[in-house]
Amino acid sequence: MESGLKERNKSFKGSVDRMFEVAAATMELEPGLADQIQTCNSVFQVSFPVYIRGEFRVFTGWRAVHSEHFLPVKGGIRYAPIADQDEVEALAALMTYKCAIVDVPYGGSKGALQIDPRDYDAAELELITRNFTMELTKKGYISPSLNVPAPDMGTGAREMGWIADAYRALYPNDINAIACVTGKPVHMSGIRGRNEATGRGVQYALREFFRHSEDVQRAGMDGDLEGKRVIIQGLGNVGYHAAKFLSEEDGVRVVAVIEREGAVVCEDELDIEELAAYRREKGGGQGFRDSEFVEDGSLLLEADCDILIPAAIESVITTENAERIQARLIAEAANGPTTFEADEILRDRGKVVIPDAYLNAGGVIVSYFEWIKNLSHIRFGRMDRRIDELRGQRIVEAIETAVGKPLPETQRHDLVRGADELDLVRSGLDDTMRQAYNEMREVFLSHDKVHDLRTAAYVVAIEKIAQSYREMVY
Ligand code: NAD
Fold first, then answer.
1. What's the pLDDT at 264?
2. How far apart are the CA of 65 and the centre of ligand 1, in A?
3. pTM higher than the cut 0.90
4. For the chain, which residues score pLDDT lower than 50?
5. Helices (runs of H) and strands (runs of E) counted in the chain
6. Counting atoms of ligand 1 from 1, which one is nearest the CA of 363?
7. Cβ-Cβ contacts under 8 Å for 98 (sequence gap 6 or more)
8. For the segment 306-358, what is each residue's pLDDT rounded down to a tens digit?
9. pLDDT at 473
C-alpha cells in the first residue's frame, strides 16, 4: 500500500489526482460524485504501421476521453518520444478542469503519438498523421460533435490541417467536417490569433494578476509587470509567444531562456525575437550575443527572478529543486510542470503559483471560438465591421461639429475602426482570462480551507462539473 501510493505519486496523473482530491475534500459533494468527476471515462490505444524509407514502421498512440459532461470533448494531440497512457490521462483530466474554469462548454480529452517529430521529414509526418487520424476517426475519437483535437507539444497548424483534410476525405457529406479539429491554418478555416493564443492568454492572466495589488504583495512584489525579471523554460509555441508579448508590450525583462540544449542568460534582457531567430538558424542558443550559456539549463529554474514561467514539459519542479526555487511567482504555462509534493513545498515557502489549468487555457478558449466559427460558417466581424465603422464615423463627425475642429488623426482612426476577427478573438480571450482569474481569486479569498490558487481553481472546476452531473437525467 505504502509503496503503491509512492509509485502513484510519482506519476503525472497521480499528481493531478492528488491536487483534485485536496480540492474535493474542501467541498460538500454527494457521495460518489467526486469519483465520477475524477475518473477517466475511456482510453483508446492504437498501434498502426506506416511504410517509410522502405520498411514498415509501427507507431503507437492514445486518445483519452476524461469527461463527457459536455460534448464534444476537447484537447490537444502531442507528438513526443516519451508520451504514454499515464501522461495522456493526466492531460485529459486537466483539459476537463481547464474548460470548466474558463467556462468553455467541452469535456476533456487528450491524445498523443509516441514519436520524435524531429526524426521525420514533412512528407513522412504527413503520412503518419493521416494514418493516425484514420485510426482515431474509425473509433469515434475525432468528430466535430464528439471529439475535437487541437495542437500541443510537437504539433501545430500544419498537423491540424492534415487531420482536417483526412477527416474531410472520410466524411465529404458532413457540412461541419472542418470543425473536427481546431488550430488549423487560417486559410483552412482556422481562426486568426489561435497560433499565439496560449501565450497571449498567459500575458492576459499575468496582467490581471498584477491588477490586484494584494495578490502581487502576497507574492512579495509590488507595482506592475514593467521591469519584472522573468525566466522562461521552453521557447516553443507557448513560451515564445508569452515571452515575446510580455517583453514587447508589458516591459518585462526576460533574463534567461531555458531550452533543451541549455540556458541562455543575460542579466540585462534577452531580445526574444532575435533569440528565436538565432536558435532557428544555429540549432541552439549557445553563442547568442551578450549572453552566457549554461549547459545544465535546469539550474536556471532555481535562479533569482520575479516570475518563473515553465512553458515546456511536465514535472520540472519536483522535490529535488522546490526548496531552492527563488522566483516569487511561478506562472505555469506548461501542463503539469509542478508535482504534487513540490507544490506543497512551494506553498509552505510562501511562493505563489498561478496554476496550469487556468493559466494556459488561452489555447482552448480560442479553439472554442474557431469551432464556433466553423459551425456558423462565417468569419467573426464579417457582418458588423463596416456598420461599426459607419457608427464611429458619425460619432467623430458629431464630436468635430460640437468642438468646431477636426480630431487628431490617431484618435479619429481609433474611433472609426471596426473590429476585425483578430480584435474580437483577443477581446474574447482577454475577457475570459480576466473573469476566470477573478472567480478563482474569489474562492481563494472566501474559503477557509482553500490555501492556494490551484486548489481554488479546482474548486471552481469541480463545482461547475458537479452541477452538470446533477442536471443530467439518466
Ligand atoms: P512546443 O513543442 O511548441 O514547444 C515546447 C518547447 O519546449 C520546445 O521549444 C522544446 O525544445 C522545449 N523543451 C522540451 N523539453 C525541454 C526541456 N527538458 N527543457 C527545456 N525546454 C524543453 O510545445 P507547446 O505547444 O509550446 O507546449 C508547451 C507546453 O504548454 C506543454 O506542456 C503543453 O501541453 C502546454 N500547452 C500548450 C498549448 C498549445 O496551444 N500549444 C495549450 C495549452 C498548454
1. 98
2. 22
3. yes
4. 1-9
5. 17, 12
6. 40
7. 104, 108, 356, 357, 358, 360, 361, 364, 461
8. 999 999 999 999 999 999 999 999 999 999 999 999 999 999 999 999 999 99
9. 53
Q: Average pLDDT of the chain?
A: 96
Please report the pLDDT score of residue 407 as a whole number: 94
The Cα 326–Cα 318 span in angstroms is 14
Residue 311: CA atoms inside 13 Å, Cβ hemisphere, count? Answer: 32
**Cell digits for 201?**
492568454
Q: Residues 309, 287: contact at Cβ < 8 Å?
A: no
CA of 200 to the centre of ligand 1 (A): 15
> 78 alpha carbon to ligand 1 midpoint, in Å?
10
Return the ligand 1 atom nearest residue 336 CA.
32
What was the pLDDT predicted at 14?
95
| Distance in Å, CA 441 to ligand 1 centroid | 27
**Per-residue pLDDT at 6:** 43
Task: Report the pLDDT value the prediction gives residue 472, as an integer from 0 to 100.
Answer: 80
Contact between residue 311 and residue 182 where contact means Cβ atoms under 8 Å apart: no
Cα 360 to its chain centre, rounded Å, is 3
Given the C-alpha cell 496560449, which residue does it identify? 198
Give the position, in ligand 1's atom list, of the atom nearest the Cα of 258. 20
Around ligand 1, the residues with Cβ closer than 6 Å are 151-154, 198, 233-239, 258-260, 297, 311-313, 333-335, 360, 363
Active site residue 110: yes
Going by CA atoms, what residue is nearest to atom 41 of ligand 1?
152
Those residues with Cβ within 8 angstroms of residue 333's Cβ, 6 or more apart along the chain or in another chain: 198, 199, 202, 232, 234, 238, 239, 242, 309, 310, 311, 356, 359, 360
Helix (H) or strand (E) segment spanning residue 387? helix 385-403
- Ligand 1 mutation pick, 118, 198, 314, max ligand atoms within 8 A of CB: 198
